[in-house]
Structures are given as structure tokens and as C-alpha cells.
Amino acid sequence: MSPHSFLFWAVLIAIALTIGVSKSGLPGVGILAITWLPMVMPARASTGMILPLLIVGDLFAVWYLGRHAVWRHLWKLLPCAVAGVLIGWLLLAHVNDRQLRPIIGIIILAMLALGAWRNRQAGAEAHIPDGWWFAVLMGLAGGITTMLANAAGPIMIVYLLAMRLPKAAFVGTTAWYFLLVNIVKVPFSLQLGLITIDSLRFNLLLVPAIVAGNLLGMYLLKRIPEKGFNLAVQLFALLGAVRLLLPT
Predict the structure, then answer these.
(1) In angstroms, how far is the first alpha carbon of the chain from the final one?
(2) Are 20 and 212 in contact (CB under 8 A)?
(3) pLDDT per residue over 148-185, tens digit each?
């Protein structure tokens, strides 16, 4: 699609707004932006294009809610997430987006189904996995998928919902996690040629839309009840997973 067309810029602005909302209000909605961008540019180029936008949104979210982060969860996740980024970097030359999308979608659906079954069986007293193996699995899975496709959002949603964090702690922990992991990804994306001077020019033009999305997310976060918030992020994760399974 021509970068001078109305549809091209309409989709880019919608993506930037969605990223902003996802970083400060509804984290699950971010996966929808990942699926929209390949509509207007090649999938490989879209991976590098979206990374700086995600970092801008992360910075705003950390400024707004970062103080609520629960660092014991971050210390469990981050080492394995960095290892996952390294694995994703090595795989990126051999796995294309078309092969990766359904794999991620299936993993997300399986984790959502497991969480729903657990809650149905035991309700509030259900045993939530919190051992080192669970953090290792989620950290590696998140690192690999975020490097390959910027699509670790639903994985983090499932993990942090399992930890039963309050709204502010949920968003604050997510904000710090993705800011740190996305910064780690930058040199690898530069080495692969995914971030270029041209892509950064587009990023600069979209910063106002990111900020507008952040403000909208802040508004929504204050007005969605705790139970409704959890249901909403699970719904967005489910929609994102289904979208990943559909042909492009």
C-alpha cells in the first residue's frame, strides 16, 4: 500500500492509538495492533516499525503507573525473557510470520482455556502456579514471541492474571516488563535491519497518536471495575489469539 494513501495513514494512526491504550489501560488490546500493521506494509518491516512505538507507549505507562509495579514478579520473569529474546533473534531468520502466527494463537488459547478451567473447578481457592518453572516458561515464551512478532502481550496477561494482581499493579508491572524487554530488543532489531532511518521517521510522526492513546487508556483504567477489567483483558487476548489463527 502506498505510504501516501489515506488508508495507510488511517491504519497507522489507529495502530498508534491502540498501542497507547494498551500501555496504560487495556493491555490485551495491544495484540490487535500487531495484527493490523501487516495490512499496510510487509510483515518483516512491520516488526521493526512497531518496536519504537511500543517503547514510547511503555515510557508513558511507566511514568503513569510504574510505581505500582510488583518487582518480585519482574525479577522472576526478566532473566528468562532476555534468554527468550536471544532465542527469538536466532530463530527470526528461519521462521516467517505466517508460520509463527498460528503457533502463538494456539499457545494463547491453551493458556486461557487452562485458566478458565482452573477458576471453574475451584473458584477463588484455585491453586495458582507460582513456582520457578511457571516463571521460566512464561519468561521464555514471552521473550521469544516478543522478539519474533511483538506478540507477547497475551502471554503476560495470562501470567499476571494468574498472580491476581490489582489493576494498578497489573498495568504497572506490565509497563516495566515491556519497557525493559523492548529496550533489550533494539540492538537485535537494528542488527537485523528491522529498524531503519525511514521507519524512525514514521515513528516520530505517530508519537502524538501514541500519547492520545495513553490518555484514553488512563481514562478507561479509572472507570472499569476490577472484575470487568479482568474479563476485558481476557476477551482482548482471546480475540487476538483467534485473529492470529486466521489467514492473512
Answers:
(1) 15
(2) yes
(3) 878 777 778 778 777 778 878 887 898 899 999 999 99
- pLDDT tens digit sequence for 203-212: 999 999 999 9
Amino acid at 88: G
Cβ-Cβ contacts under 8 Å for 85 (sequence gap 6 or more): 143, 144, 146, 147, 181, 184, 185, 188
Spatial contact of 234 and 157, defined as CB atoms under 8 Å apart: yes
> Which triple of cell numbers denotes residue 134?
511457571
pTM of the model: 0.81
User: In whole angstroms, what is the distance from residue 63 CA to residue 66 CA?
Assistant: 6
Q: Any idea where the domains of the chain sit in the sequence? A: 6-245
Q: Residues, the chain, total? A: 248
Report how far residue 51's alpha carbon sits from residue 37's, in angstroms, rounded to the nearest whole number.
Answer: 12
Q: How far is CA 68 from CA 76, 164, 175, in A?
A: 17, 14, 10
